[in-house]
Design brief:
The protein is an alpha/beta fold and 132 residues long. The protein has one domain (3-131): DNA polymerase III subunit chi (Rossmann fold). Helix content is 26%, strand content 21%. The chain is built from four helices and five strands. The chain has a five-stranded mixed sheet with strand order 2-3-1-4-5, covered by helices on one side. The longest helix is centred in the C-terminal third of the chain and has 16 residues, at 98-113.
Length: 132
């Protein structure tokens, strides 16, 4: 069983909450150039050496670097067996999209029925996260 936290975006878009998490290679390039004062070591299939990468960018649930955290965005989901590879999972969804809301609800129900611990977080009027 995994802990799964659902983050319901209401007042901000995913692009504002996370630094432009749109595509794997876009994020890969962004992490190299986002801030001159900091660096997040990372890689993707294109870079190789997965076992040496603290952050592995992928469009699937492969876990070649044995990460303990998984972030799911843009409607991505995983089955209970895949989630067991991670100690904690973060599902970030756009609450302004009816489709994204429906997908998140279905994913929540599936995870709960599989015995996972699910937690729901919502933004307040100031954009701060509150557990609901």
């Amino acid at each position: 069983m995994s802990r799964v936290d659902f983050y319901h975006l209401q007042s901000q878009t995913l692009e504002n909450v996370l630094p432009k998490l749109l595509r794997v290679e876009f994020l890969n390039a962004l992490l190299w150039t986002y801030n001159d004062q900091s660096f997040l070591p990372h890689g993707s299939k294109k870079d190789g050496n997965a076992e040496l990468q603290p952050i592995w960018l992928t469009s699937g649930t492969d876990n070649p670097n044995m990460a303990s955290l998984l972030f799911l965005v843009d409607g991505a989901a995983a089955d209970n067996g895949e989630l067991e590879k991670f100690s904690r999972v973060f599902n970030i969804f756009d609450g302004n999209s009816p489709d994204a809301l429906q997908q998140a609800r279905a994913f929540w129900k599936n995870l709960k029925s599989g015995g996972n611990e699910c937690f729901y977080w919502q933004q307040d009027a100031n954009g701060r996260w509150k557990q609901a």
